[in-house]
Amino acid sequence: MKTLLAVDGSDNSYEAVHAMKYFARAEQLTLLHALDIPRPAYPMMVPEVAEELYKTLEQSMREDGERLLDRVQSLLPMHAGPSTKHLRIGSPAEVIVSTAEEQKADLIVMGARGIGPIKERILGSVSHRILTLAPCATLIVNGPVKAMKQILLPLQGLSDAEAAIRFLQMRPFHDAVEVTLLTVLPSTQPPWPVDVAAAEKLEEQALQSARDYIDGAAERLRVLGYQAQGIAVLGTPSAMILQEAAKLRSDLILMGTRGRQGITRFVLGSVSHAVLHKMPCPVLAFH
Known about the structure:
This protein has 287 residues and is of the alpha/beta class. The protein folds into two domains: 1-145, Rossmann fold (3-Layer(aba) Sandwich), CATH 3.40.50.620; 146-287, Rossmann fold. It has helices at residues 11-19, 47-75, 92-103, 125-133, 158-168, 196-223, 237-248, 270-276, and strands at residues 2-6, 28-35, 83-89, 107-111, 137-141, 150-154, 178-185, 227-234, 252-256, 283-286. It has a ten-stranded mixed beta sheet with strand order 3-2-1-4-5-10-9-6-7-8, with helices on both faces. The chain starts with a strand and ends with a strand.
């Protein structure tokens, strides 16, 4: 698996480095730091002086970036795999996405950076852009990662299940993990009048169909060697995902970013979006 580890020196960025211990040895590990160098914002400044200030700032930021990458490389786990360091100038989101495309990365790992006084509960704009534009799976680390054992895998349909299985077939984790597959059936009333008993019967039939689907997906993971169990519940998808993650004390939520109506990879599905903005643990998004 080819992995891109994007770092910016923030606390969550270092937590993302720490999270690498829970992933399998990378075939190729790219350490990336984007230099977003501001241009002097003084219109009356002589162009030559402005350019000299820019070059001085660029040199300083390059030196800081090189020290950051050296430190990150020194903190990698022994089994991380062969790593290369890259400093690139540009918007962080655009640099990370373009580098992932060039490197044909299978996974981007990065820390979340929120904005404002409630930053710990809001996904940062850079993280959001990368999730919506990334050509591969993306792990967003929002705080200390103490384990990577219990994984919650919400699934919304056959395409979701196929994408999850493709990702897990790459054996991305270093140690054995336990996967709880979850499908949420929205509780809806039939469009025609029915009595209570008939409505309950229809609901149970729909729930049994959901159980069959999620049990089938869990069995496919067991065939691959994973410990896996399936759960089907009624409720609001985003709320039930967060509730189950809390109940199971999940170390990671692994979920697709496609919406139900075939939303493309350039737009996060509404359920994924809601979970990402309230994530109680790291989220690894695939598509």
